[in-house]
Amino acid sequence: MSDIPHDRAGTFEEAVRRSQALRADFVRHPQRYRMLTGDRPTGPLHIGHYFGSLRNRVELQNLGLETFIVIADYQVLTDRDSVEAVPGNVTELVLDYLAVGLDPAGGHTHIFCHSHVPALNQLLIPFLTLVGMGELDRNPTVKEEIDAAGLTTVNAAMYTYPVHQAADILFCKGNVVPVGRDQLPHLELTRKIARRFNQRFCAGRPPVFPEPEALLSNAPKILGLDGSQKMSKSRNNAVMLRAGADETAALVKKAKTDADRQITYDPERRPEVGNLLLLASLCTGEEPAAIAARIGEGGSGALKKVVTDALNDGLAPIRAKRADLARHPDIVRETLRRGIAEANDVADRTLREARAAMNMGYGLD
Ligand code: TRP
To answer: Which end of the chain has a smaller Cβ tally under 10 Å, C or N?
Structure first.
């Protein structure tokens, strides 16, 4: 694999460097990698997800990497009371995945919900014995999520879900995990769990689990249309992948800009204008500064027209495909049925190996 030693892993800068080295190797040796990543089914996806992660997943899939996408439905139980929205959210997520080009029909992409893969969940039990309470308690991402959700009581799964996430990754021996920066602590824990399992149970036999690598996105960060730090549906500052052209135009029209009629690309001083130029650029491939120069003194009105057209043209094929898929609900069920069957095959095999290593096969496996 890549040649950067692991002893300096753990810092953000190191993760960025390792990600670059990995990307170069994917092209040469796609068959050495198995990608696992996923999402909680908390709602349909927006263009921040698309440019930040989905597009990258599809590129890696198309390079030939075996691709596992987990819909982390049990994880939803960590911070919300109601499960009413889960089925609808799972459907929306699968439609988004298929529309952007994740392609189970290609034979090496598997989309599944972890609630339907018993052997994956069973790995959680030995994994929990490899982690200390203090480690769980110190996880910065979990702390932030507890604060952000304003939880007054915190359930135990909120503290243990990073271990569950290790099972999501390790059940299929995933060795590449495309994630955002916030997920790095979880990935570091997954690496520790793999290492500790192999050390504790695999003396004198081949290790069961790989130590997976984080793959950080090299896409620039997209802000909400209101200029706030995060694009999110709940803040109503997001363009959803599934939105119609008119809806997109209306949202962009409301986007925050500034009073300077001369459009320039200066993301430090003019974050809102910079963000709109970036969005147009991500759709068309033209540099943000070149788009700005073309708009010149046209002001926000002209800028917004350019952005709306870029988004609506750029997303048109995805949206058309999505609308078409949405007319055939069987496709979603079939995608999951197939992905779940494939995930179960892999999970059953891995659990048997893990049981053998733990001396619990009893000649029965
Ligand atoms: N926690 C991730 C998120 O909220 C979703 C997720 C669950 C995940 N299991 C995973 C991501 C395994 C990568 C690998 O975005």
So the answer is: C
